[in-house]
Amino acid sequence: MEAEPEAEPAAALLAEPCPAASTPVPASPPRHPAEGEDEDEGEDDDDFQFLRCDGCGQDSARPRLLRCLHTLCPACLSDTKQCPRCQAATAAPAVDNLLFCNLRSRLQLWRQIRSAGGPGCGRCRAEAALVWCEECEEFLCGRCLEEHQWWHKKKAHRVRRVEELRAGSARQFLEETRGSCSLFCSSGSHPEESRVCSIYCPRCERALCCPCALLDTGHAPFRDLRAESRRRQDELRSLRRDLRRLRRAFEAAAARLRGEAARREEQRERLRERVRASAERLQELVRSEAEELRALLEARPERGRSALAEELLGAEGTLLRLEAAERLVERLGRYGGEQELMDMQPFVKGALLELRRLRPPQVPELREPPDITECRVRLRAL
Ligand SMILES: [Zn+2]
Ligand SMILES: [Zn+2]
Ligand SMILES: [Zn+2]
Ligand SMILES: [Zn+2]
Ligand SMILES: [Zn+2]
Ligand SMILES: [Zn+2]
Predict the structure, then answer these.
(1) Among the four residues 72, 319, 325, 329, which has the most C-beta atoms within 10 Å?
(2) CA of 380 to the centre of ligand 6 (A)
(3) Whether residue 294 is found in the same domain as residue 314
(4) In the beta sheet, which residues pair with residue 15?
């Protein structure tokens, strides 16, 4: 029991006339009056999964709060350069997530309360606990409670029956115990004694106990600690309202971006479909064109070929006649007498003149049949 801190309840201290506390303190616990206007106060946190590491999902005794306001266990934080939730860089300094840390230990208390046998007395460790002292943060059995009440009779510790707590919800328990942890003065002027803070010095941005605030004239102007914590809550709430508006704007922007991305993907898909369709059409076109050309080449084989054959036949005939003419003229010269010359010369001359009018046929390539030409043109067009 000697190890117990000389905890002075904040309420008791504040009730004393303390000139440093300039703001009147309401008797009720510091609950924000405008809380009703918060939109999603009923957010379902009942399983408290949010206390787990945002990276590995494990329970951590020392969760760290990142600049992006996600929470990682020390192992995950040292392993990564990016927040696994939002991909923000984790290089910015992180702080201990005291809220989650405290919630976690209070949740463990709650589990003790709800455990099959209920919690045991934290002092004698022999009996089942009857009450929970919010100031000592300890479970007490009936006998130890009597002793505790006698010991703290001047300070009136707030105790709750374990049975009553058991009947409530975890959320209720955590909400009710949130104010029970007192803030102790960290001033070096009284190292032997821990005193509960009730004063806030805005200059040092630090909580002080009443005596420290009065003795050290460097601190001023003072604010009541509860008023300061209300002010800080208000500040956060007002920021949250601003951020909600911003979030709606971001949601709208994200929706637009998503819509645009979907539109582009759709466009790309349509184009892909068109490419596929026209490739198919082209293939079909090429196939039918090839079919037609083959038909064109096969359908009229005689015409083109026979024209050429006639030409060739004609040329061969002319060659034979030229040869015959040459021989006849030669033989007539060699063997013919005047009689033959007189009788035959005019006829032969006529035939020779006729032969002389002939011209050799044109080179066949230049007279390509029209179907081949057409074929060639259409092939090139493909
Ligand atoms: Zn982790
Ligand atoms: Zn993050
Ligand atoms: Zn006991
Ligand atoms: Zn107590
Ligand atoms: Zn102090
Ligand atoms: Zn100060």
Answers:
(1) 72
(2) 93
(3) no
(4) none
How many angstroms does the Cα of residue 187 sit away from the middle of ligand 5? 5
Residue with tokens 């010095």: 201
What distance in angstroms lies between residue 265's CA and the mean position of ligand 6's atoms? 60
Q: What is the pLDDT of residues 304-319, one digit of tens each?
A: 566 777 788 888 888 8
Q: How far is the CA of 52 from the centre of ligand 1 (A)?
A: 8
Is residue 205's pLDDT more than 90?
A: no
Of all ligands present, the nearest one to the C-alpha of 56 is 1
Domain identity same for 245 and 291: yes
Instruction: Tally the C-alpha atoms within 13 A of residue 36's C-alpha that lie toward its C-beta.
Output: 1
In the structure, ligand 4 is a single-atom ion and the residues with CB under 5 Å from it are 133, 135-136, 157
Q: Which ligand is nearest to the CA of 156?
A: 4
Name residue 223's beta-bridge partners.
Answer: 200
So what's the pLDDT on residue 54? 92
Residues with beta carbon < 5 A to ion ligand 6?
201, 203-204, 219
Q: Which of 249, 272, 299 is the last residue of a domain?
A: 299
Domain that holds residue 271: 237-299
> Which helix (H) or strand (E) segment is 200 a member of?
strand 199-201
pLDDT reading at 154 higher than 60: yes
**What is the per-residue pLDDT across 363-376, written as a single tens digit (0 to 9) for each?**
555 556 677 777 78
Q: Does any domain span residue 100?
A: no
How many other CB atoms are there within 10 angstroms of residue 40's CB atom?
A: 7
Task: Write down the mean pLDDT value for the chain.
Answer: 80
Quote the number of domains for the chain. Answer: 2
**Residue 311 domain flag:** yes
**Percent over 90 (pLDDT), the chain:** 29
- Rounded Cα gap, residues 341 and 351, in angstroms: 15
pLDDT at 55: 92
Let me know if residue 322 belongs to a domain.
yes
Among 322, 236, 224, CA closest to 10? 224
Tell me: do 318 and 351 sit in the same domain. yes
Distance from CA of residue 280 to its chain's centroid? 38
Residue 106 has pLDDT above 70, yes or no: yes
From the CA of 72, how far away is ligand 1's center (Å)?
Answer: 5
Q: Which of 283, 299, 315 is the last residue of a domain?
A: 299
CA of 124, nearest ligand number: 3
CA 133 to ligand 4 center in whole angstroms: 5
Any domain includes 109: no
CA 212 / ligand 6 centre spacing (Å): 10
